[in-house]
Amino acid sequence: MVKKIEKDYSRFRSIVRGRIRKELKKYISRGELIGKVGKDYVSIPIPQIQLPHFRYGKNDGQGVGQGPGEPGDPLDEGQPGTDPGAGDTPGEHLLEVDVPLAELAKILGEELELPLIKPRGTRQIQADKERYTGIARSGPESLRHFKRTYREALKRSIAMGIYDEKNPVVVPFREDKRYRTWKVREIPQNNAVIIYMMDVSGSMGDEQKEIVRLEAFWIDTWLRSQYRKVDCRYIVHDAVAREVDQHTFYHVKESGGTKISSALQLCREIIERDYPPEEWNIYPFHFSDGDNWGSEDTRRCLELLEQNIFRASNVFCYGQVKSAYGSGQFKKDLDEHFGDDPRIITSEIRDREGIYGSIRDFLGKGR
């Protein structure tokens, strides 16, 4: 019975995985998925999987689209008391399936054909790990080695001639007790930090911010599957930049002008203060509608990227979200100045459907 259940469960998981793979582009562009993110699982609502069947019902020739009438005739509101009331037929149901984030990342990588990320250079930190390596005569009772203790007590009993085969009771003395010992060794551990920057000026509306939120979730999902530990830092800016928490980053409503250099300057300060490039894999992501205060600030942005951020980062990613009020000039300036420079990736996100391709742009290089 247990084997049959496991077989059925495995088949069910295979069907679910196939459905997620088939509808991945739709899931990437919808916001309901993000609101159900837990610590390790994501609840994905999918249609019930069932066999095709006929549905029978009444057809009495009445109702909307039935009977005589001319184009433009108003529809009657119906007579009082004629409401049929609650229905008695089953409706469509949704099944919520818990999918581990690691599995979701694997599906994302397979569908977008994302290469595994190779950490840049020797960007590894040393993490301490305790490993039991020997036996000692003293230590805490929680680390007592029962097999070794029994063996010592048995040897002592036999040597003293007090061991009775008919009543083989062995009571350990203090000197019989043995304890596990350990030593701390350093192991290499790859870590990464994602620094999200978002323009929250007046030209960035709610839809643009939602697109950023959706894309950031999938970027997080993939990078967390590639690194042992991932830190996330969040910066919002209009004419002035400030660091905020995750909730504020996705829900802040501000207005005003735009100085992109303020966000890049704060990004540089965070990296210099908290994330030495020789110890961290660093991924700055900036999202904006492409408007900037002026050519002078754009020149300042190019200097910060060239002299500071590029040198510290694995790759700098700029996502330009299309807005009715944004000029989109900043991406043009970046592309014109840096061309095919591998240190920077730019992507245009016209709408929610564009998130799928933008993720491939950013993560498809394996850097």
What is the helix fraction of residues, given as a range?
A: 25-40%
Strand content: 15-25%
Write the CATH fold name of the largest domain.
Rossmann fold
List the total number of helices: 10
Backbone structural class: alpha/beta
The gyration radius over C-alpha positions equals 31 Å
Domain module count: 3
CATH superfamily of the largest domain: von Willebrand factor, type A domain
What topology, given as strand order, has the largest sheet? 7-6-5-8-9-10
Overall mean pLDDT stands at 79
User: How many DSSP E strands?
Assistant: 10
CATH architecture assignment of the largest domain: 3-Layer(aba) Sandwich
> What is the distance, rounded to the nearest whole angstrom, between the alpha carbons of the first and last residues?
47 Å
How would you characterize this protein structure?
The chain contains ten helices and ten strands. It has helices at 2-22, 24-28, 101-112, 146-160, 206-226, 246-251, 260-274, 295-312, 329-338, 355-363, and strands at residues 41-47, 94-100, 125-136, 179-189, 191-199, 229-237, 241-244, 281-288, 316-321, 344-349. The strands form three sheets. It has a six-stranded mixed β-sheet, sandwiched between helices. The protein has a two-stranded antiparallel ribbon with strand order 1-2. Strands 3-4 form a two-stranded antiparallel ribbon. β6 and β7 (241-244) form a beta hairpin. The protein is flat and about 105 Å long.
Q: What characteristics describe this protein?
A:
single chain; 367 residues; alpha/beta; Rossmann fold; 6-stranded mixed sheet; two-stranded antiparallel sheet; 10 helices; 10 strands; flat
